[in-house]
Amino acid sequence: MEEDQALPKFKELPRKPLCQYNLSCKNPPLPKSPVCKYHQQKMNRRKTRSLRSPPMSPMSGSEPDHHMEEWNSDSVLTESHNCYAYAVKGVDPALLKKCMDTKDCNVGFPQPGYASGYEKFSENKHKGCADMFARLSGDNPGIRPTTFEEKCPFGFSKIALILDKKRDYHFAMQSSNGMWYHKPGAMEVTNLDASGRPILRPDRSLFMYTRHKFPLTYTRFCGYYCVPRNKEIHIKTEIREGGAVPSWRLPTPRRQTRRKSRDVSP
Asked: Where are the domains of the chain?
């Protein structure tokens, strides 16, 4: 799929912490806050409490809870499922079992496009926004591009896609509280960006993890997308070779199983 008018306008992500109040503010944010001093004071002067919060992306009413506690308290779920599975709320029961039966849960992650037959990602080719959207819509044709200001239809909610073009993709999802959450690889779910600030809008957040063993610099924002929340989601760990595409939903919390954590950078 080529980059055309059907897709969001791709842009560069910040390379340093910026105020997330809007796209035009260039001020640095306050410590542990998504907004700068100017916008925080502006919100504090508002008369009603409901107007003292920063502007969030409009919600459809179908946004899922972040389930951060459930994911982070279950080491098998945490170590076997990645940002993609978390964002679309798809969990593979077979992958959970394989993780439990494999030393150190050394199993692959669900990957965009595998359920619809796309080839594995090439180590020699940069990742592109258009290709990633083609993979998303191939697995789940109901996914469609949107904007931060637009409300998804009822039954859908927003996810955001970002890239380190040389190495990796990453997803975040809007929760029912209006804020954004993400799951870096086999690590725990969080609502903080790389600077330790809550994610108000992913296109203004910092996703440069340069202090890790394998640095990741997500600097390409590939847009917001509406994903279905009221029907089955298709994800797959291995490339599809034929037959029906399996579908999974978020399971109910299970008994925690202790496993040695894998060394996976976000």
From this structure: 68-248
